[in-house]
Structure formats: C-alpha cells, structure tokens
Write the structure tokens for this entry.
Amino acid sequence: MIKHLLLSVFVAAAFSGAVNAQCTPNTQYADSTFGVWPDTTTNLPCAFADNASGYSATIDLKTLTDTTVTITLLGSPIVLEAYIEAFRINSVDGLPAGFNYIPNQSVWTNGGATPNFTAVQGCVSILAAQSALADLIAANPTGIDIPLTVVVDAKIKNTNNPLANAVISDAWLSELTSLPGITAIPVEGYKLRVRPVTTAECGTTAVAEITSSVEIDGNYPNPFSKSTNIRFSSNSSKNMEIKVFNMVGKEMMKANFKAVKGENSYNLINEKLTQGVYFYTLSDGKNTATRRMIVSAN
C-alpha cells in the first residue's frame, strides 16, 4: 500500500523573523481522495541557514471517512467497517529546538454524519526562525538530516458492529489502550534537511544521503485484492524490511528480503488483508518511506 501519505499536526507558537501564519489548504487537492502531500519520498523542502526568512514548509492532507479494519475483541478477530469522524496530529517527533508545527485546525472533523461522512482538507505548517537554522549549522557545518515522525490520531465515531461499538464509539485511536495492537499511527520517512547555504538541491550532505536511499515508485495494481507489486529503486544491495499497517495502527504484515542495486519489485501476497485502506513502510534500517495502498473486495 504505499509510498505514503498521511497526516496531522498542531500547536501554535510565535517566531521572531519566521513566517508565523496558519497555512491554507491547497485547492489543487480538493478533488483528491485521502492522502498527504508531499509524501515521504518527495519529502519536505530543504532548510537553508542563510535564508533571513527562516524556514516554512506545508504538509497538505485530505481526510479518510471510513475503512474496513480487523480488530481483536474478546480474544477473536472481528472484521468491521469503521466510520472515521476526525483526524488530529498528536506530535511531530524529532523536531529540533526552535522548530514548531502549526495545523490550520487542531482537529479536522469530517462533514456530514455517520455512516455518510464527507472528507475535508487540512494542512500543517512547519516553521523556524533563521536563528534556529544557524544553531543547527553551528553544530553541523556541512548540514544535517533529521528524521521526523508524524503521529496521527483518528476518531472513530462508530462501526457497523454493535459489539465493537460498545468499546470503540467516539474514541480516538490513542485512547483504545484496552484493544491489542490499536494505537495512534506513527508516519515515518520525512526528513528535515538543513544546509548552510541556499543551493538548487540540498548540497553535499544530501548527495551522500541519496547513495543509501530507497525510492518507492508505488505499487501496482492499486487497488488490488490478491497481490500487488511494490516497485522501488535502491542505490546498493541491502537487506530490506516491509511492514503493513491498517488504519487503526495495527501491524498486519511484516517481511524481510534482499534488494539489489537498481530497480526492484517486491510481490506482496494478500493472505489476510480485508477490504480497506492500509499503509506500508519500506526500510533499509536507515531510511524509511511510507505509502498508502487499497485492498478491494475482489
């Protein structure tokens, strides 16, 4: 499912010398389905310490309204349709001192009513003053790449299963601590790339990073039912790990395999994924990319 996508963030803070305004959702994505832009492979724009305006980046998103998930209840797996009322960002882990994130809303609440919710757009600004960039470069003169994890939470209004509703209704994923495997979803793969001077790309540190990167082209077919090929490129032969998560943060599949230098294709066989939206991460132990995939009924 995915190269990736996804998610949420908030907290307002004032910066001297940095842009300090809530973002406005990009109308370019108004007709899109659930997603996050840019995804983790495209990544956030670079930050340059010689920029007097500091740093300003925007993550756009489109919410999800419902999905099929499998949960364990009373010791048995149950497949149900979950109706998602809202999304929020619980944290952006890894942001260095002087950086902050500001969502245009603290919670993105879907329109309509269950079971016919309608998706909404949202966005998150990541901001820093030039002084914060200068501090990072003072300690890392050639630049630094800082991994970020966006922890996204979803509120389930209810489901099509009365037994599950007794536990899940009107609850955020992070609150469902009594259900095994359910958690707020950590979206990994974004990197904050800070460089000393403005260049067309991210400079020498970025080039060194690319030599060990993983670039996902996506999976085909998508949607799929039986199997899908995840296509990616690697700049060296290395051990890889793939994980698949459902929309309530539960790990559904995990596998290890060997990638070769150049173009690769991993055939993901669907043995237990029910119809719905999923996320997958592809990692070489240093770099992680996340994407979304959809499993169809047949």
